[in-house]
Amino acid sequence: MCARVYNFSAGPAVLPVRVLEQAQAAVMELPGAGASILEISHRSKPFAAVHEEAKALLRELLEIPSGYSILFLQGGSSLQFTMLPMNLLGEKQTADYILTGTWGKKAFDEAQRLGSAHVAWNGKSDNYSHLPAAQDLDHSSNAAYLHYTDNETIQGVEFQSVPEAGSIPLVCDTSSNFLSRPINVGRYGIVYACAQKNAGIAGVTAVIIRDDLLERVPKNLPPMLDYKLQAENDSLYNTPPVFGIYVLMLICKWLKNEVGGLDAMARLNQEKARLLYDVLDAHSDFYRGHARKDSRSMMNVTWRMPSEELEAEFLTAAKDRNLIDLKGHRSVGGIRASIYNAMPQAGVEALRELMLEFHKQHAK
Ligand SMILES: Cc1ncc(COP(=O)(O)O)c(C=O)c1O
User: Fold this and answer.
1) Average pLDDT along the chain
2) Contact partners, residue 64, CB within 8 Å, separation at least 6
3) Domain 261-362 has CATH 3.40.640.10
4) Is the model's pLDDT at 59 over the cut of 80?
5) Which of 142, 197, 202, 203 matches a 20 to 30 Å C-alpha distance to 77?
6) Which ligand 1 atom is at minimum distance from the Cα of 10?
7) pLDDT by residue (tens digit) across 287-337?
8) pLDDT 10s digits, 181-212
9) Using CA positions, which residue lies closest to atom 10 of ligand 1?
10) What is the CA(161)–ligand 1 centre distance, in A?
11) Is 237 exposed, middle or buried (0-12, 13-18, 19+ CB in 10 A)?
């Protein structure tokens, strides 16, 4: 294996070496197929087995109750911003959105373009640095659903509990913390996540949808954008993202067999995040965390430093130690360490070490 850097990219992001090795082998030959995973029909037996296994492993890891379908769609999570209102927002209804960051706002903008959308809470005035309290949510009376972003990848704020939606279907964009910890799927109408952070590679988006919602889908939607049609065809209305589904299956296997499931994964993730947040807390005059303490993300740790020059110097020092892609998104600035499932603890420890040394050298 080549010398690998510690890759803190927000996505596409680091993958487990074991999964990369298996994917590499399957590019030559999918075990038992006598051909590459890239060469076989999506309607062949070997691919059907991969597809079934991916769904079964997701069901097992997330303890998905009966009455939910799993779809593997294309177009990324961004297409879900469009499909959701197209499929579920009726003419006399309003769609409620909690805006805790850039992605929630994008999802809202898309709903507003397609129908009536309402902001249930907006964190923009505080630069999306924290979450709403339960009593702060402003629900509309005729809501078709309530949408929120479980983890805002750019700002680094993550819900610590599930927002209350009453009898309204709750829809969760869990793109950047999918499979990082257990979730109670039974509380949701729809959970969706693009794969390229915690669940594999770009090109496939997992959509877990409660079956009764499929009955709300209006007739005559473009077929590719129709949840009901996609469910009826088991995501095989057209050629699905075959390789993406394969890698997602490998990730699930890795989570189950090598990590020990989502509780174990959550414990590892908590420890990794603690290593960095402890430095932020110990040197809060130098490392200024973007997220309020009660809203901190376990996946994307974001902070500013006393000057942009110091931030640039820090990024250079990080690169010298093979710690890459730590630059914060331009809307927040500073540093962002994305520490998804596959980031080894040793990578986080190396970053922590640098932070402590850099502070010693530069703090006044
Ligand atoms: C929380 C969240 N939602 C949605 C998206 C958009 O995903 P895609 O690029 O797959 O459309 C991203 C991508 O970074 C994200 O982090």
Assistant:
1) 97
2) 58, 70, 185, 208
3) no
4) yes
5) 142
6) 14
7) 999 999 999 999 999 999 999 999 999 999 999 999 999 999 998 999 999
8) 999 999 999 999 999 999 999 999 999 999 99
9) 76
10) 21
11) middle
